UniProtKB/TrEMBL annotation:
Lineage top rank: taxon: Bacteria
Record function comment: Protein O-mannosyltransferase that catalyzes the transfer of a single mannose residue from a polyprenol phospho-mannosyl lipidic donor to the hydroxyl group of selected serine and threonine residues in acceptor proteins.
Predominant subcellular localization, coarse grouping: membrane
Protein name: Polyprenol-phosphate-mannose--protein mannosyltransferase
Annotated source species: Candidatus Curtissbacteria bacterium GW2011_GWA2_41_24
Alphabetical keyword list: Cell membrane, Glycosyltransferase, Membrane, Transferase, Transmembrane, Transmembrane helix
TM annotation in the entry: 7-24, 98-130, 142-162, 182-212, 224-245, 316-336, 348-364, 370-390, 397-416
Length: 439
C-alpha cells in the first residue's frame, strides 16, 4: 500500500473517530443551554416558516428565550432542515453542528496538505481533532462552527487557484485557465456562504482578496477584473440566504431596518456577562467597566455553557481551549512568522493571515465578546503547530514531536469531562481549574 492511500485511510479514520466522539451523549443536556435559547428557537421558527424570527421586536416565543435576528440565516436554515427531519429535539438542533464540526478536521487536513504536504496535514488534523474549544463548539446549536468550515473551504479553493496559477504545467494546456476560473468561482461561493453565516465572513473576504492580490503582484500579473467574482458573488449569496425572508413578503425597507437594528446592537458597549471578554481583557461589566488582562491566545477565560445535576454528580460544559495546544500554538505561530519574514513564502503568509485576521480586528470591537470568537483562528493555529512539529520530526528531536502530539491528545481527554458534560463528582471540578481565571 502506497503512502497516499495510507494518508487517506488515516484522515478517514480520524474523522470517523471524531464524529463518534462528538455524537456520543449529544442529547445531554436534553434542553436548551447557553445560546441555544436563541439559535435553536430561531431554527425551529424557520422550520415553521414563522416570520416573527426575523423581527427584532417580536416577543420571546418562550420564557427565557429570544429570536436570533442578529446573525445571517444560513446556519439556522441548515439547523431548521435538521429539525424538519429529526424533530424539535436536541438531536435535531445539534446534529448539523456535529457534522460541520467534524468536517473541519478533513478541511484543515486538506488546506495544510495543499500548503505544506502530507506530514504537516497529519499533524495539523490531529491537533484540531483534539482541541477542546473546537470540540465544544461542534456540539452546540450555534453558528460559529459553520463559519469556521466555510472559512476553511474558502481558503482551500483560494489556495488551489493560486497553486494552479503559479504552476508552469497549468499554462501548457487549455484546461489550466478553465480550472482556475472554476476555483475562483468556488472560492467566491464559499466566501458568500461564510458571510451568510456570520458577519466575520467579511474578514474572510478581506483575507482572500489580500492573498490573491499579493500573488498577482508577486507574479507581476495584476488584473483587478479577476476579483469581480470575489467581491460581487458574496453579497448576492448573502441576499439569497434571506430567501425565506423575501418569500414571506418582507420589503427592502424592512431589510434595511433590520440591519440598522443589527448594527445598533453591535455597537452596544455595556452588555454585562460574567464571562465576557475582548481579545485582550475580561470585561464582565461591559467595555466601560473595569478590565483585567485575559487574552484569548493564552486561554485565560473560557465560558461556562452548562451545569447539569445528575444526583450527587454534575455535568459541566465549559468552552475552554486545550491549554497545551493554545500555549504551544503561540510558539508555533511565532516560528512561522519568523520563517515568513526570512523567506517571504506565500504559504506562510496565508496561514498567518488566517490566524490573525479573525482576532486582531476584534481588539477594536465596540461590544463585548466571548473566548469562542477566537474559534476561526484555531485551524490556522493548528496548521502552524503541524508545520512546526513536522519540522521537528525531521531533526534529531523527532521523538519530541511525537511526544508533544501525544500530550495534546492526553490533555484533550483530561479536560473531556468538563467540556462534554460528563457527570463528575461536584468537588472534582477543582482539579480542572488550572488557572484561577477559569472559575
Amino acid at each position: 500500500m502506497n503512502k497516499e492511500k495510507l494518508v487517506i485511510i488515516f484522515i478517514i479514520f480520524l474523522s470517523l473517530f471524531s464524529l463518534i466522539l462528538r455524537t456520543y451523549r449529544l442529547t445531554e443536556p436534553n434542553h436548551y443551554y447557553f445560546d441555544e435559547v436563541y439559535h435553536a428557537v430561531t431554527a425551529k421558527a424557520y422550520a415553521d416558516n414563522n416570520p416573527a424570527a426575523y423581527n427584532p421586536f417580536s416577543p420571546a416565543p418562550k420564557e427565557g428565550t429570544a429570536y436570533d435576528w442578529l446573525h445571517p440565516p444560513l446556519a439556522k436554515l441548515i439547523q431548521a432542515g435538521s429539525i424538519k427531519i429529526f424533530g424539535d429535539v436536541p438531536l435535531g438542533w445539534r446534529l448539523p453542528s456535529v457534522i460541520f464540526g467534524t468536517a473541519i478536521i478533513p478541511a484543515t487536513f486538506i488546506l495544510a496538505y495543499i500548503l505544506f504536504g502530507p506530514l504537516t496535514a497529519i499533524f495539523a488534523s490531529v491537533v484540531i481533532a483534539f482541541e477542546n474549544l473546537t470540540y465544544v463548539m461542534s456540539r452546540i446549536t450555534m453558528n460559529d462552527i459553520f463559519l469556521v468550515f466555510f472559512v476553511l473551504v474558502s481558503f482551500i479553493f483560494a489556495s488551489l487557484y493560486v497553486k494552479l496559477s503559479t504552476s508552469e504545467e497549468s499554462f501548457s494546456h487549455l484546461g489550466g485557465a478553465k480550472k482556475r476560473t472554476v476555483y475562483l468561482f468556488l472560492t467566491s461561493i464559499s466566501l458568500g456562504l461564510a458571510l451568510s453565516t456570520k458577519w466575520p465572513g467579511l474578514y474572510t473576504i478581506a483575507a482572500v482578496f489580500v492573498y490573491l492580490l499579493w500573488d498577482q503582484i508577486k507574479n507581476k500579473q495584476v488584473d483587478l477584473l479577476k476579483f469581480i467574482p470575489i467581491l460581487a458573488l458574496p453579497p448576492i449569496i448573502y441576499l439569497a440566504s434571506y430567501g425565506q425572508y423575501w418569500v414571506q413578503g418582507h420589503s427592502i425597507g424592512q431589510f434595511i431596518d433590520l440591519h440598522k437594528q443589527i448594527w445598533w446592537y453591535q455597537q452596544t458597549r455595556n452588555l454585562k456577562h460574567s464571562y465576557s471578554t475582548t481579545p485582550l481583557y475580561c470585561v464582565p461589566e461591559g467595555l466601560d467597566g473595569p478590565k483585567t488582562w485575559c487574552p484569548w491566545v493564552l486561554d485565560v477565560r473560557g465560558v461556562y455553557f452548562s451545569y447539569e445535576q445528575y444526583g450527587t454528580k454534575a455535568g459541566y460544559i465549559y468552552a475552554l481551549g486545550n491549554p497545551l495546544i493554545f500555549w504551544a500554538g503561540i510558539v508555533a505561530v511565532s516560528y512561522l512568522l519568523g520563517k515568513f519574514i526570512e523567506e517571504r513564502k506565500k504559504e506562510y503568509g496565508l496561514v498567518l493571515l488566517g490566524y490573525f485576521i479573525f482576532w486582531i480586528p476584534w481588539i477594536f470591537t465596540p461590544r463585548v465578546l466571548f473566548m469562542y470568537h477566537y474559534l476561526p483562528s484555531i485551524p490556522f493555529l493548528s496548521i502552524a503547530l503541524g508545520f512546526s512539529l513536522s519540522k521537528i520530526l525531521k531533526t534529531k528531536l523527532m521523538f519530541f514531536a511525537l511526544v508533544a502530539l501525544g500530550v495534546f491528545i492526553a490533555v484533550f481527554f483530561y479536560f473531556y469531562p468538563i467540556t462534554s458534560g460528563w457527570p463528575i463528582e461536584i468537588a472534582a471540578i477543582d482539579k480542572y481549574m488550572w488557572l484561577k481565571t477559569w472559575r
